[in-house]
Every structure is written in structure tokens, then in C-alpha cells.
Amino acid sequence: MPPFRADQVGSLIRPASLMASRDAALRGELAPEALREAEDAAIREAVAMQEATGMRVVTDGEFRRSTWHRDFLLRLSNVVLAPGRITMSFRTASGESAERAPTALAVRGRVARPDPIFVEDFKFLASIAHATPKLTIPSPTILHFRGGRDAIDRATYPDIEEFYADVAAAYNREIDDLAAAGCTYLQIDDVNFAYLCDPRLREQVRAMGEDPDELPHTYAKLINAAIANRPPGMVIGLHACRGNASGGWLAQGGYEQVAETLFNAIDVDAYFLEYDSDRAGGFEPLRFLPKGKTAVLGIVSTKTAELESRDFLRARIDQASRFAPIEQLAMSTQCGFSSGAHHVTPMDSARQEQKLRLLVDTAREIWGDA
Fold first, then answer.
1. Structural domain of 217
2. Which of 67, 110, 204, 262 is most buried, judged by most C-beta within 10 A?
3. Considering its fold, how many domains does the chain have in total?
4. What is the mean pLDDT of residues 265-285?
């Protein structure tokens, strides 16, 4: 039953053939049906690769998406792209740094989910997988964080709580349909809890008129409402990330600021935590992890092609077990391998496969199975 001792976050490196098909479709040179066939073929190969490594969980690599979040959120009624109000410093391991204002989302009317979003995508994945199929969806908090209250139409939502209620209802409808399609493992991707650990971003949140100490509680309530109707057999994980694009990141700072709320106020079963470098801080926040929940530690990096050693990974798990029982720990990649279709990845598909296999083999050494 998920999460597994060796798990993964979700996205995979897109094959060149798939990218060529996607680009042709954008130019109007390939029909939507033909693009779907190309995606199906690429996903079949990706699932076979994942299962060959010994992974007990597989994803579709997010191959049908342009980015990890927009393809879902822009399918909600009255959600549009808008300029972001928060400026982030994009950093890489080489020391490069550049200021960016990531695109935000704005709400121009009542939020609803008129049609299923990823349900058919999940059905295809489930139809070809022998391992447990996992679907990833963006956190509902993404609709609020980068634009704040001013990104939510005040005429439509004079009371912000009505906005949160509509967003939660939209998510409930999608999760209901996913459950009916047989989904038993769902991951919610959330960058905002980790962003609220970065002192620089916390100051920008204050300048935007929001309270960085209160937002984790607000967001915990929103996520809980969004998953309130999930059936008992559905395992839900929350992925907390500091941004991931072309081997770079947008935030840094340990989980201490949000750990107690993150682990105890959100009704999920597992937490996928970025822990591949010092930017994530130490393992001390794991002391807040309650019984019955799992911390999946992202100690294999997707931001570098360097292959971690088993000794290094075993040592990291040993360090973490000083703050949370090893029975409540698992391991994974720190993020997906390619959060966007056109992101430049720091490794090739062969290294990606080696990293997944490394997770499986090391997990077997530590826990006796994967």
C-alpha cells in the first residue's frame, strides 16, 4: 500500500519524439487525435521503464501537460493567467542567479469544474500499469499565493471564504470522478508551504497584504476541504517543493516555520519533502510528524546528473531517523524530472532510469523491500 519505501514525485523527461509531436500540434501540423496517440505511445514506454526498475508506483510522466500546474488549473471556470506579484530569485548549483516574477493565476468569476480534467488521463495510465498508478495534481493554494487577495475578483468574492469554498468544491468533483475511475493514490503538488519558509519571500507576502504566519493555517484548511470527500481507500500525499526548473530552484529555507501545521493540520497520509541539499535545512522538523503518517524524503536529486551513492542515501535516512521513526520514513526523488514540457533537464533518460533504480535498490537494503 502506498506510499512505498521507494517512491517518486511524478514528472519524467519527455522523449524527443513526443516533444516533436507536441511542437507540431502547436503549429497546427498535427491533429489532436494524432498527438494523443503519440502521448499514449510515450506513456506506454515510460510505464514499462518505471516497472523495469522495480518501482511499485508509476506515473504517466505528466507527458500530456505543458507544465505541472497550469493544464489543471486553467480548466477551472474563470481562472486565467496574470502577472505575478512575487519576485523570486532563480538559483542553480553553478551559482547563477536571476530575478523572476513567475506567472500567477487570477480569478475573474465563480470558480467551478464544469468537466473532468485528468480523469481520462488517469484511466489510460491505470489500463496499462501493473504497478500502482499515481496521479499528480496541483494544490488549490496555487490559485491564491502568487497574486494574493487582489488576484481574486472582489465583486464575485467579497468574502474570500466563498472563494475557498468554491475551489474546494471544484476539487471535490474531480476527486470524486478520479475515485470512481479507480484512483487509489493521489499526490497534491504544493510549492507554497516551502516558499513560506524563505525569509525573502515571507517579506514579499507581507508587502502583498498577507500574513505569512497565518497563510499555512489558511492553506491547510483549503487543502482539507478540497480532499474532504475522498474515499477511505484513497491515499493522498502532499509534495512540498522549492521550485524546479532546468535544474534550478526559486526558494530556500528549512521546514521549521511550517512543520507543525504541515504535519498535523493537513489530513493527508504522506509528505514528499525536498531534502537533496542544504537549501531544505535539516531533518529536525520531522519531530512534528505524527504517528500514522509517512515522510517520503526526497534525497535523490533531479537537479543534477550526479548519481548519489547508496552509502550517502543510507546515511541520510539514518540522520532522519533520529527525529522520526524509520518505520514512518521512505525515500524518493526530491522533485519530478521535468516540471514543464520545455524545461531543459540536467540529465538524460538513461540517468533518470538509474536514479529510479537506485531508489529501489537502496530502499531494499534499508527496509527489506521497496
1. 16-367
2. 262
3. 1
4. 94
